[in-house]
Automatic annotation (TrEMBL):
Organism, scientific name: Hymenobacter jejuensis
Record's catalysed reaction(s): AMP + ATP = 2 ADP
Highest taxon in the source lineage: Bacteria
Listed InterPro entries: Adenylat/UMP-CMP_kin, Adenylat_kinase_CS, P-loop_NTPase
Family annotation (PANTHER family): NUCLEOTIDE KINASE
EC number(s) from the headed UniProt entry: 2.7.4.3
Annotated protein name in UniProt: Adenylate kinase
A Pfam family this chain is assigned to: ADK
Keywords: ATP-binding, Cytoplasm, Kinase, Nucleotide biosynthesis, Nucleotide-binding, Transferase
UniProt-listed PROSITE patterns: ADENYLATE_KINASE
GO CC annotation: cytoplasm
Name of the gene encoding the protein in the UniProt record: adk
Classification lineage: Bacteria, Pseudomonadati, Bacteroidota, Cytophagia, Cytophagales
Compartments (UniProt record): Cytoplasm
Gene Ontology biological process terms, A to Z: AMP salvage
Length: 209
């Protein structure tokens, strides 16, 4: 299975790149932000509680998002793999993701982080807010709050994957296609490493032939 964690601050381009990656690698897209917004749209109890925090730019509790991911994994057992977008955002969430994927005899393949400076993020999100209808994209104070939460609470997740040799950072400013190409190159390297026994056997076979 190919399980990619797409990482980066709000507005870094995770959603855009996720759409391209699911098409290329036939993956299921799991965005905790989208899952939470769907709960809000349905008017559920969970959605009502999450909305208050989301509108303030704060994180919703770990157990809420972990529970959502757990049921999404259970509902998609025949998937070729997943893109995790906006999750994990804390170290306990990252630990839970390892435990949950282990249940299916798989794990996180790699994490790719898109790096974008705060001023560019604010510009992008205010622009997105004109059409997204998201209250958290329409107010500069809330946007800066989300960036601060990312820097103080979420950025440590990078270290969690770095110690596992799975962390990669890319410049998230540039042409969408260029960034996509760089992400694919990282994923293909990890996939290549996972299948290198088969590859070297094929190479030997080619030499023989
Ligand atoms: P963005 O990356 O633009 O901030 P998201 O759609 O990923 O947008 O998330 C929107 C909001 O949903 C976050 O600010 C946070 O309140 C909540 N949220 C999403 N994913 C998580 C998560 N993994 N843990 C806690 N809160 C989350």
């Amino acid at each position: 299975m190919l399980n990619i964690v797409l990482f980066g601050p709000p507005g870094a381009g995770k959603g855009t790149q996720s759409q391209k990656l699911i098409a290329r690698y036939n993956l299921v897209h799991l965005s905790t932000g989208d899952l939470l917004r769907s709960q809000i749209a349905q008017g559920t109890e969970l959605g009502l509680r999450a909305k208050k925090l989301m509108d303030e730019g704060l994180l919703v509790p770990d157990e809420v998002v972990i529970g959502m991911i757990e049921s999404q994994l259970a509902n998609n057992t025949s998937a070729a793999g997943f893109i995790f977008d906006g999750f994990p955002r804390t170290v306990p969430q990252a630990e839970s993701l390892d435990a949950l994927t282990q249940r299916y005899n798989t794990g996180v393949t790699c994490m790719v982080a898109l790096e974008v400076n705060e001023e560019e993020l604010v510009t992008r999100l205010l622009e997105r807010g004109k059409t997204s209808g998201r209250p958290d994209d329409q107010d500069e104070t809330k946007i800066r709050k989300r960036v601060t939460v990312y820097n103080t609470e979420t950025a440590q997740v990078a270290g969690y994957y770095a110690t596992q040799g799975k962390f990669h950072a890319l410049n998230g400013i540039g042409a969408i296609e260029d960034i996509f190409g760089q992400i694919c190159a990282i994923i293909d390297r990890h996939q290549g490493a996972a299948t290198s026994v088969t590859d070297s056997q094929e190479a030997t076979d080619e030499v023989k032939a």
